[in-house]
Amino acid sequence: MVAEMVVEPLNSPALITLLAFLLVVITLLVSTRRSSNAPRLPPSPRGLPVVGHLHLLGSLPHRSLRSLASSLGPVMHLRLGRVPTVVASSPAAAEEAMKTRDLDFAGRPRLLMVDRFYYGTGGIGFAPYGDHWRQARRVCAVHMLSARRVASLGRVRAQEAAALVGRVRRAGISGGVVNLSDSLNGYSNGVISRCTLGDADCGVEGGGARLRKAFGEMEELLGTVPMEETVPWLGWVDTVTGLERKAKRVFEEMDGLLERVIADHRQRRRAAAGPPPPGTLKTLWT
């Protein structure tokens, strides 16, 4: 009898209609509250769970972004794994982000490779906007990139450019193929290492060649996006592919080289072995 008293009201069409109406009202209220609290985002294409819009980039991301911009407009929102990204595809949108509202867009995301190779600080190239970044920028402008400093290092750039031209000439005479990308990358690393550490080997076995090789491997890894950064629960893929092992090896080698360079500068300052080799490190030391 009790069961009949409970079941009988549920068979009433009026009660069922009332419950359905209340369910619809509650659903609308919850969705409206969520939409009012959600940020206003640019238009976005349909995405997939977990990967977001990564599958839309393809093998030529710049062309894929151009195609998306032609249908969505000059500013669009993409979700690259768990990373929300706003893409500006027109000069006007880029000017508004980089000039008109530059302070709003001055922040930088935390990247796993950057945190590892820059000891968590990010350096001037990756550090978030703030007191640390402004101080680092001031040091660079005054001591590293001033007109006088750049002019004093003209000899290094000329010598490295001459060495580059010589390598290309010898390859041409022998009929070999010249990989200009590798050659220009080697020239850039040579200039950076000599301008930073000086012409001496700085106590490093193998000298500048070893430093340039370590710099090149570090630059390659800085341009790599680990799977853990976009899809954290797939971080084990980086271990399977060997990326984690390579990053750890390069970091340990780079850290050891820098420790030896600093120790060499300290020894030269304390002993009568002569002044430290000229370079940015010597300038910062003094």
Structure, briefly:
With 286 residues, the protein is mainly alpha-helical. The chain has 15 helices and two strands. The chain has helices at 2-10, 13-37, 61-72, 91-100, 112-117, 123-126, 131-144, 147-152, 154-173, 180-197, 207-222, 227-230, 236-241, 243-270, 280-285; strands at residues 75-80, 83-88.
Task: Furnish the topology, listing elements before pairings.
Blueprint: H1 2-10, H2 13-37, H3 61-72, E1 75-80, E2 83-88, H4 91-100, H5 112-117, H6 123-126, H7 131-144, H8 147-152, H9 154-173, H10 180-197, H11 207-222, H12 227-230, H13 236-241, H14 243-270, H15 280-285
Antiparallel strand pairs: 1-2
Helix pairs in contact: 9-10, 10-11, 11-14
Beta strand count: 2
Query: Widest sheet: strand order?
Result: 1-2
Radius of gyration computed on alpha carbons: 29 Å
Amino-to-carboxy terminus distance: 95 Å
Helix content: 55-70%
Spans of at least 5 consecutive residues whose pLDDT stays below 50 are 1-7
Please tally the helical runs, counting DSSP H or I stretches of 4 or more residues: 15
Number of domains: 2
Q: What's the overall average pLDDT, rounded?
A: 79
Large-scale geometry: elongated
Protein name: Cytochrome P450 71A1
Transmembrane segments: 12-30
InterPro entries: Cyt_P450, Cyt_P450_E_grp-I, Cyt_P450_sf
GO molecular function: heme binding; iron ion binding; monooxygenase activity; oxidoreductase activity, acting on paired donors, with incorporation or reduction of molecular oxygen
